[in-house]
Amino acid sequence: MDLATYFEAVILGLIEGFTEFLPVSSTGHILLAGHFLGFQNDGKTFEVLIQLGAILAILTVYSHRLIKIAVDLPTSQKARLFVAGILLAFLPAAVLGASLHGFIKQVLFESPRLICTTLIVGGVALAWIDRLDLKPRYTDIMDYPLSLCFKIGLFQCLALVPGMSRSGSTIAGALLMGTDKRSAAEFSFFLAMPTMAGAFAYDLYKNRDIISLDQAGVITVGFIAAFIAAVFVVRQLLDFVSRHGFMPFAIWRIVVGVAGFIGLYMVG
């Protein structure tokens, strides 16, 4: 691997870290960026495996909260229901993702025009939802009922299409079903932990035979960049959403999608 490849890995890692927990689709961003940079890797393993950096970032930032929940599990029904809700929300995308893994990686991941389209469509949908006069019924993720968690998990399945955004799909679904903006974003953080860890482990297993030592070096560089960027985002996002809502992200999605179409038209 030459120096330029490592530089591209840093760029893609930063993109992953900055966008993973925003409702803008990290996968869509790094696939488009990789397409225009000419970044190649067997089985698209890099794009999935550098998510480990973002996973460790959110585990680091939320370590005290996670420890408290773990300690409370034996004595607190609320803690047990919360963990059950996260696992229930995780299941639909896990089952569907494993079933469609080959199609997603070999077909959907290879379609930049699809990604541009879903970025724009998702941006329009997010802008529409953000402007709705919704009356929140749930403002604390620890009080989300199991039925609500499962429905949010069904919305997460939309993110199997690159460009739709895992966090964007779960946040949009949560808002439509009566949560406030801050708790919707926070629930998306917690749901990201098993979802991203499961995707990482499954993709690592499926591609174990094609990951070389050269790839390991590039993945490590991307992982470190993703970790640093994701820590910053996780620390800032909830306060930003409380002040500004999701409209800035909707606009960003549309701009990136349109720019992607222009780039594809001009350079292919």
Labels describing this entry:
268 residues, mainly alpha, 13 helices, globular, membrane
Strand content: under 5%
Q: What is the ordering of alpha helices and beta strands?
A: HHHHHHHHHHHHH
What spatial form do the alpha-carbon principal axes imply?
Answer: globular
Oligomer: single chain
Largest sheet: none
Number of helices: 13
Calculate the mean pLDDT score and round it: 89
Regions with little confidence, pLDDT below 50 for 5+ residues: none
| Count of individual domains | 1
Organism: Cohaesibacter marisflavi
Pfam family, one: BacA
Protein name: Undecaprenyl-diphosphatase
EC number: 3.6.1.27
Q: How would the blueprint of this fold be written?
A:
Elements: H1 3-19, H2 26-37, H3 45-49, H4 51-61, H5 63-72, H6 77-99, H7 101-106, H8 112-131, H9 146-156, H10 166-176, H11 181-206, H12 213-244, H13 247-267
Helix pairs in contact: 1-2, 1-12, 2-8, 4-11, 4-12, 6-9, 6-11, 8-10, 8-13, 9-10, 10-11, 11-12
